[in-house]
Each structure stands twice: as structure tokens, then as C-alpha cells.
Amino acid sequence: MEFLHRARPGASSLALLPGAWNPPTRAHLAMARAALAWVDDAVLLLPRVFPHKEFEGPDLHRRAHWLEACARGEQLSAAVTEGGLFIDMARECRAATGAARVFLVCGRDAAERIIGWDYGPQRGIARQLEEFELLVAPRNGPYVPPPALAARIHSLALGEGWLDVSSSAVRELIRRGEPWTHLTPECIAGLIDPRLYS
Questions:
Q1: Which residues, other chains included, contact 154 with Cβ-Cβ below 8 Å and sequence gap of 6+?
Q2: Domain membership of residue 119 as a residue range
Q3: CA 87 to CA 83: how far, in whole Å?
Q4: What's the chain's average pLDDT?
Q5: In the chain, at which end, N or C, are there fewer CB atoms within 10 A of the end residue's CB?
Q6: CA distance 105 to 9
Q7: The total number of structural domains that make up the chain
Q8: CB burial of residue 187 (10 Å; 0-12, 13-18, 19+)
């Protein structure tokens, strides 16, 4: 794990918010701020390699620059990880920081994919959740975890109005030539070149 910015060095509990950040949105930062009710620090994470999709559009360097600007503007932390799976990120985080408690933050749709994924008999999700916990933001309703996993999966309280805020919505607005900066954090709106998406 390579930190781009650390807001609170020595934090004993961390919430990791991984994403493609293509580009970052206000909803991403709302999730990170909400996670601070659970932990000492929230870390915006960018994997060098995505586990289930290709790296398309703006390159890693540009996205890392956006992430660092967001972290500094919001007094959060930001880092780049080598691994793209939640378990890999949690292990990298522990090795780099010594944090006693690690949460991974995601939306309901991602939680459903993560819990339902076939990791094989030795890397099942129940075993992975012994090393980290999930904070799940509602999207089209709350996520209800399987009873056997409920002690390690928590609901993230998020205010109203974030359902339609997404990176894909930003990209689509740019492609259509419509206003889009209202969906991105003020600290990076001037850093995003719309020509990357038009």
C-alpha cells in the first residue's frame, strides 16, 4: 500500500473505500465521511489492477492525482494498493499501518457481488470476514446480510440524494455536453479534463 496522503497517522481503525474513481464523485466522499462515525480515519483506495474489469480511460497517475486532491480537501487519507480484492486490500492495510480494525466500505450492489462471489473453498467470504468487516451504504434499499455473516457486515448511514450520483452519470453528462461539475467534488472539478470522456 502506497499512501498518497495520510490525514491521521497512527489511526487504530480504518475504513477503506476502494473504487475506480473514474472520476471521483460527491457520493464517494459522502460515503467516506459517513464511515468516520465508525473509525479513526477513512482511506480512499485505488487498486493498480482491478480484479473484474479492465483499466480504461484516465490512467492510474491521473486518478491518483484526483484522489490525493480529494483526500487533502476533505481531511481523509488516500492510497494505491497492489491488490484489487477486498481481502488483499485489508491485508496490505494491516501490514502498512498495523491497524487493529479494518472495514471495507461499499454500496449495496457491490456487497451483493462480494458476498455471492465464488472464491473457492479455501478463500470463502466467511473466512475473509474474519480479517475485515464491511460497511454497506444503501442503494435502492438497505442490504440485508446472510444471518451467519451479520455480525461482520454493518449498515452505513448515508443521507438522501446520492442514488443518482455516480461516475457513470458524470461520464454520460460529459459525453452529452451537459453540466456535470455539480456531481464531482469542488476540490477536483477543475482538474478533470472533459476531453477525457467526450
A1: 38, 103, 133, 134, 135, 136
A2: 2-196
A3: 9
A4: 92
A5: C
A6: 20
A7: 1
A8: middle
Question: Cα dihedral sign for 107, 109, 114, 116?
Answer: positive
The C-alpha cell of 145 is what? 446480510
DSSP code of 115? Answer: H
The dihedral region occupied by 140, where left means phi > 0, alpha psi between -120 and 50, and beta the remainder, is left
Confirm if 198 and 177 have CB atoms less than 8 A apart.
Answer: yes
- Across the range 39-53, mean pLDDT stands at 90
Full-model pTM = 0.93
Query: Considering the chain, what percentage of its residues have pLDDT values greater than 90?
Result: 78
Query: Cell numbers 477543475 label which residue?
Result: 190
Collapse the DSSP code of 33 into the 3-class scheme (helix H, G, I; strand E, B; otherwise coil) and give the result.
Answer: helix
DSSP 141-186: S-----GGGGGGEEEPP--SS-TT--HHHHHHHHHHT---GGGS-H
Q: Where are the alpha helices (DSSP H) in the chain?
A: 26-35, 60-74, 86-97, 108-116, 125-128, 167-176, 186-189
Domain CATH number, residue 135: 3.40.50.620
DSSP three-state, residue 62: helix
Q: Are 32 and 44 in contact (CB under 8 A)?
A: yes
Q: Is residue 188 predicted with pLDDT exceeding 90?
A: yes
